[in-house]
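call fold(seq) -> tokens
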Amino acid sequence: MAGTQTTEAAPAPGPHKAPPSLLYMVKQVELVVRSHLDELVKPSGITALQYTALTVLERHDGLSAAQLARDSFVTAQSIADLVRSLENRGLIRRERNPRNRRELLILLTEEGRELLARHAGPVRELEERMVRDLTGRQADQFRLALSKAWQALS
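ret:
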């Protein structure tokens, strides 16, 4: 018939698949970021976990081992090995807390700061790559959403 258009029927919808959980997706992002970060810092002889601890000290120098463990997302048991390794490399030093002589504070050395400075550009590029398909506003919202999610569970 003139003027009549034929349209093909849309395919029947398949079985509904639930999207992956947010927890699963966060873990996926964490694992891929850690893998890339490990590759970036490997030439300096450190791991992504050690790099994370150094960045924590860069923001908050002079932490106790317990606080560094919490802020670096490692257990109190594993922080001792991490600190020993970084200290042996000359990237951190320990000194007595003047307010509590029984406590040792962990401080970033100049060598540690230099290592972080060497990796600042490549790490920034990795972060930019992670959010390259987001607008600036979306990246800011993503950062805020992650912060709120962390606060809700802390």
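Residues 1-6 have pLDDT under 50 and may be disordered.
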